[in-house]
Amino acid sequence: xxxxxxxxxxxxxxxxxxxxxxxxxxxxxxxxxxxxxxxxxxxxxxxxxxxxxxxxxxxxxxxxxxxxxxxxxxxxxxxxxxxxxxxxxxxxxxxxxxxxxxxxxxxxxxxxxxxxxxxxxxxxxxxxxxxxxxxxxxxxxxxxxxxxxxxxxxxxxxxxxxxxxxxxxxxxxxxxxxxxxxxxxxxxxxxxxxxxxxxxxxxxxxxxxxxxxxxxxxxxxxxxxxxxxxxxxxxxxxxxxxxxxxxxxxxxxxxxxxxxxxxxxxxxxxxxxxxxxxxxxxxxxxxxxxxxxxxxxxxxxxxxxxxxxxxxxxxxxxxxxxxxxxxxxxxxxxx
Length: 335
Ligand SMILES: [Zn+2]
Description:
The protein is an alpha/beta fold and 335 residues long.
């Protein structure tokens, strides 16, 4: 591919396999052409269309340049915006450093290492990690399960890791009783599809399972759950076949929850050994990082940088999600 950013129409005519190769080489291409995440966001807007971040209308006109950046105006609601509005890079001053930051994340570096290499503060490093992870959340919509689907409940310790003492004191009076555990519903099939979901509850309930599987499984899927009450009692029209098995058993030589248990062990190890635990508030972000690592990334730094950037750039709701997450107090976990 010659000069990716100069020939966008050529990019849009690529086959699926060529597009994948393009993402895998995206980082090198961007470095070679001297482009940054904003340039990529512009390219992305050409394939997805420019939509109003407020009302989602496509009735949008160009509205002059501001500091050399294209401005748009929505003819429906009057909102003025840029292609970066609402994305993970919205409001960041040093956008030029974000590509390198994603590369450091792909390399599995700690917040401190990322900060040192990209020349940003440790606090900024933390914020950027969550900006990018918030932009990964919509990947959830791409996960579907086929054949035998294994389900299990994972109970994580409730954590307020990283919270300042001053903040804790203020919150204390507001909360009744803090939970000790937070439930995560873990699911995997046997062809590599995986999704974990943190619930606003201390146990997995039958309703959670039913909602979670709706629109994600086909009618010939066989759902395998462990012998906990929620799995035993779940009953929904979209769950046609169900098998309950003991945690360590293989029923009829086929049905088990052994695969999902392996994934849970990997996930818990990753959270506790790599990050030394994460605050419950940020658990959803880390969950999706784990899911993407297992399903979308290649475990190779250059390839994963391009893939992560492409995924992040596809999400126009990232900033909103990030803003809400950062303003979230722990009071919400009054479960
Ligand atoms: Zn609008």
